[in-house]
Every structure is written in C-alpha cells, then in structure tokens.
Amino acid sequence: MGIGGATWFFSNLKPNMTMQNQVSHMIAIVAALSLGSSGSWGQEGRQLSREELLAARAASEARQAKLKPSVPKENKSHPTQSGILDRSTIIVSERHWTCVPKGAVLYAAPEHKNRLGAESKGTYLDFNRFIERNRGWLVTYGVSLQQARGKSPISEDTRKSFATCGRTVISVFRGGPISTRPYQEEEVVVK
Question: What are phi and psi of 8, to 5 degrees?
Fold first, then answer.
C-alpha cells in the first residue's frame, strides 16, 4: 500500500469507529508504508489480491474481537425478590404516570378505575407533582400512623364522603403516599 492508500485510509475514517479499530487500521497502514512498496505483498513475495486482503482484514478483526472484554450477563434477581413496581399501584393520566404503594388507594371513583393499575405510559412524575397536575380527579387524605397500621379506624362518615366527592382518594402520611391496612380490632385476652 502506497502513500495514496494512506491518504484514502485517513480520508475514510468514520466518526463512529472505535478508537481501537482506528489504531489497528493505522498500525496496518504504517506497516504497509514501511515496506516502501506501492502494493500489498504476502509472505511468499507476491502481491495480494483484493479478496486476500479482505480475508486478512477479517481475520485480524476476529482476533481483536476475542481480546475485547466480555459483556457481563444480565443480573437476574432472586425469584423471591420483587421490584418496587410489583408492590405498587400505577396511576396514569393522559401524558404522565406515578406509583403509590398497594393499599394507598382508599377509594377509587368508578369513572377513574381504568387509570389505576394500568400500564405506565408517558413521563414519570413524582407523587406530589402528579397530584398537583391531576387535582380534578385525585385527592389525598392524611392518615395517622395508627390508621395506616390498621390499629385505628377511619370513621365511617369519612369513608362515605369519599364516595360522594367523585374523586379517587389516596392515603398520605407526612406528604407521601402510604399503604393503609383495614382496621382490625385487637382481641383482648382475659386471663
């Protein structure tokens, strides 16, 4: 390969070529130029054909591919582990979605049930921004930690008001959504 070949090589470097490929091609050009010939010569002293050059280049690239570090396999979680979305209810609007812990929806208005547990589409918004944008059909209800644990009831009048407001009600504690267990009276053991 002569000087014209080197000019061709440098004018045809692709911006998406990896640095390793560019370096290996440059080494090949320098080696060919050091022979001081206008053609490519094989070990037998004869000029190589285009097909032979392409085969040699493919073999060189295959050797370099073996030297590349292997990509680690996908880390699969343990079968008993679950992700945060598995333990959440997804709430969607037209262009946004958020997630709340399962059990945080105290009341789902019938006309909005299709927005709960749906596939997440659009852009994720944190809970507070999502509530701000969807105040027309979502409302929050602050619960105490005792109510969230199911040790103190949410009054029956409050639960009835959820049905009359026409909005989906999410339980919150200190500004964030929280699962709320149903009230269970503690059994008193008499000794």
Answer: -60, -45
